[in-house]
Amino acid sequence: MALKHPDRPPWLKVRFPAGGNYERLQTLMREQALHTVCEEARCPNIGDCWSRGTATFMILGDTCTRSCGFCAVKTGRPGTIDAAEPRRVALAIQKMGLRHAVITSVNRDELPDGGTGIFAETIDWARRLSPGTTFEVLIPDFKGDWSALETVLAARPEILNHNTETVPRLYSVVRPQARYARSLELLRVARTLDPGTLTKSGLMVGLGETKDELLAVFRDLRESAVDILTVGQYLQPTPAHLPVARYWTPGEFEDLKQAAVALGFKHVECGPLVRSSYHAEEQVAGAHAGLSPRVMETGIIPLTVLH
């Protein structure tokens, strides 16, 4: 007999993507031949974010070398590197008038540098065309190659994000090609290599984890000097992906947020529809004192998105 999945509760309903800004951004992405994690990962917030003129750019193609059980991004053998992609992303950021831009990628484990050169070039091009913009990178683990990590940090992003995604017990089914200890080490090494960059990590709930397991991950992240934490509800993107074990209530999310704040995170986003890059420009401003050392140095305060 087939297992019955829990019904989606009313607090997880989102509006259908529509509106002038949504259509403008969709056209821009197609014109520049760009990918967004909003589309590829079937993010439930795409209608909200795109209507406000914000998006998370996904570089290095649309095919990932890993097969995480939660992720809707296509898995397989990636194509060749597009050397012109960094400039096209930078042009899109310029046309959108972003004060804060988020850049992520698929895993490219077949590349010697994991694609970090393209990350750095993208930020360099974007800074050239949009000198008033701050940048967040959401990066893979690069298989523990910290010289690759150093390449990304050399481009001096204001925020370096790497998601732990779930609790260690569930890694074998949720992130089978990743390692929990390696993700924690990446965040620690990033802090050592560049203390001026804010570090960030995120988790999903609803995959079968317990509250105690989540709190243990929170503590591990704080011991790794992570500044910003995001926690949101996992939603099954297709029937082929991992099922939702349960839906956490808004009250439970509030309890998790208070526990995280008590541990000393500089900023915490915790709620059913929270995603790693959701309202990212507000997360920077919400970090301790509203400013990272990098932002204090540049004098750029990314509070809003300009339309």
The proportion of residues forming helix, as a percent range, comes to 25-40%
Oligomer: single chain
Number of separate helices: 12
Largest sheet: 8 strands, mixed
Structural class based on helices, strands and sheet pairing: alpha/beta
Number of strands: 10
Give the uncertain stretches in residue-range form. 295-307
Strand order of the largest sheet: 1-2-5-6-7-8-9-10
User: Over all CA atoms, what is the radius of gyration?
Assistant: 18 Å
| Elements, N to C (H/E) | HEHHEEEHEHEHEHHEHEHEHH
Query: Mean pLDDT, as a whole number?
Result: 82
Tell me the strand percentage band.
5-15%
Which characteristics define this entry?
two-stranded parallel ribbon; single chain; alpha/beta; 307 residues
Structure at a glance:
With 307 residues, this protein is an alpha/beta fold. The protein has helices spanning 20-31, 37-40, 46-51, 85-96, 116-129, 146-154, 171-174, 180-193, 211-223, 250-263, 280-286, 293-298, and strands at 35-36, 56-59, 63-64, 74-75, 100-105, 134-138, 159-161, 198-205, 228-233, 267-270.
